Amino acid sequence: MVLIPTILCGGAGSRLWPVSRELHPKPFIRLADGQSLLQKAFLRSAVLPGVKEILTVTNRELFFKTEDEFHEVNQDKLATSFILEPFGRNTAAAVAAAALQVADSYGEDAFMLILAADHLIADQPAFANAVAQAAELAQQGKLVTFGIRPNSPETGYGYIEADGNTVQRFVEKPSLEEAKGYLQTGRFLWNSGMFCFTAGTILREMAEHCPAVLAATRKCSEQSRSAAGKDFRQLELNPEYFQEVPSISIDYAVMEKSRHVSVVPCEIGWSDIGSWSALGDLVPTDAAGNQVEGEALLYNTANCYIRSDERLVAAVGAQNLIIVDTPDALLVAERSCAQDVKHIFAELKVKGHQAHRLHRTVYRPWGTYTVLEEGSRFKIKRIVVKPGASLSLQLHHHRSEHWIVVSGMAKVVNNNSEQYVNTNESTYIPAGHEHRLLNPGLIDLVMIEVQSGDYLGEDDIVRINDIYGRCEKEEIKEV
Questions:
Q1: Which residues, 6 or more positions from 422, have their beta carbon under 8 angstroms from its beta carbon?
Q2: What does the pLDDT read at residue 222?
Q3: pLDDT (average), residues 224-230
């Protein structure tokens, strides 16, 4: 049996703001054990029988970060492949692109296991057993979904009414009274959003139930750039053609229409970590009901979830609150209103505030930069460049830059000259000079960049050459 776990890694995770941002969404949130939700999805997939590679569908801007996450945990050097979307078109498009690639690489009899990158599954043996049951049904030509046996009347999930493995109907998110009724009957399961089928089966079902999605995705895939190497494959979807793919979920497009759907009821310790309350439930609770990640001092405080990665948080007389502190944003919410955090995220997006999109530390293919301080005519950054990595060859019209190496060694291209800058040394890049920063060493290059000029926006960059393929347009908006 050939099994290709397919991880869908997208979304904004708006209910987990301010830790989750558009360019650092929920799958990248680290739990108390140091692993991200995305890494856990990779690891639980990698140990399943018959796995030949892990296929991930993600946004183009998240590719290098996703690759770094996998590199940390992929000790057995399992093959990885990626389908990179220029923007989101919902899950039907993602599944179609993945199925076309799997069928092309392994044949239509290959099994696909569709997983979300931001779910948590606590019981690995039970999960493996559920996948084995699903594969047996998929071999019979079924589209298999995984139904979670509910333990509470949740209103945030869709439901499946089932009789054994037979799906009676799919139900939208219910009211509280409806959910209580579902729980009492014993016939309803939470819809986990995980699926198993062969590549051929899902392609035939999409051809019947959503032919426009399949046809547009196939055309887009044929017009897209691909690259391959040892244990690696990448398909970057063409944005012009991808725009023509209808945006619809795989549930609406196929699962709710097909006559060949089965369900595997299971208890696998599943959670979609849909709010700060759910994330807080993973943290040990003290005698007063508080859950703390980071450093906190509490006085007369009860039933609070507090998270702070850097600063000390003190709470006095607080009850039933969520307090999440990041370097550039602080969230304080009544615990019963955890689901409403998404409205703050939406408001930030409407106003164009960068706190919905970026953290103060921003990840790039070559490493990271952190804005330490900025004013009307200056900005100070801490830049970390990975060994062997290189920033693009670029220039700025309105700002000059002074670079001071804190650790490691930098190779600097400055117009027609090249120089090596060692620890405690510096160099100056005048406005208008073509320049590039490289790390030729074996350890991280850490440096401080001081920008000065009349305009310091990130869109004052003309990118001339880039090893990461980011030069499709001359004027760009990201470092």
A1: 405, 409
A2: 96
A3: 87
Q: Is 64 in the same domain as 212?
A: yes
Residue pair 55/3 in contact by the 8 Å Cβ criterion: no
User: Is residue 149 a contact partner of residue 189, using CB atoms and an 8 Å limit?
Assistant: yes
- What domain count does the chain have? 3
Q: Give the C-alpha separation, 81 to 187, whole Å.
A: 38
DSSP string over 69-84: HHHHH-TT--EEEEEE
Q: How confident is the model at residue 352 (pLDDT cuts 50, 70, 90)?
A: very high
Does residue 348 belong to any structural domain of this protein?
A: no
| CA-closest candidate to residue 131, choices 148, 145, 116 | 145
Same domain, 397 and 261: no
* Mean pLDDT of the 256-272 span: 96
Domain boundary at 255, 271, 287, which?
271
Q: Where in the sequence is the domain holding 204, given as residue range(s)?
A: 3-271
Of the CA atoms within 13 Å of residue 390, those in its CB half-sphere come to: 18
What are the tens digits of pLDDT across the range 133-192?
A: 999 999 999 999 999 999 999 888 999 999 999 999 999 889 999 999 999 999 999 999
Claim to verify: residue 283 and residue 254 sit in the same structural domain: no
Q: Is the pLDDT score of 479 beyond 60?
A: no
Is residue 217 classed as helix, strand or coil in its secondary structure?
helix
Distance CA 282, CA 48 (A): 25
- Is the pLDDT confidence value at 209 over 60? yes
What CATH number is attached to the domain comprising 469? 2.60.120.10
Radius of gyration over alpha carbons of the chain, in Å? 24
pLDDT of residue 162: 95
Closest CA to 12 of 442, 356, 476: 356
Asked if residue 355 is part of any domain, the answer here is no
- Name the burial class of residue 186, with classes exposed (0-12), middle (13-18) and buried (19+) by CB atoms within 10 angstroms of its CB: exposed
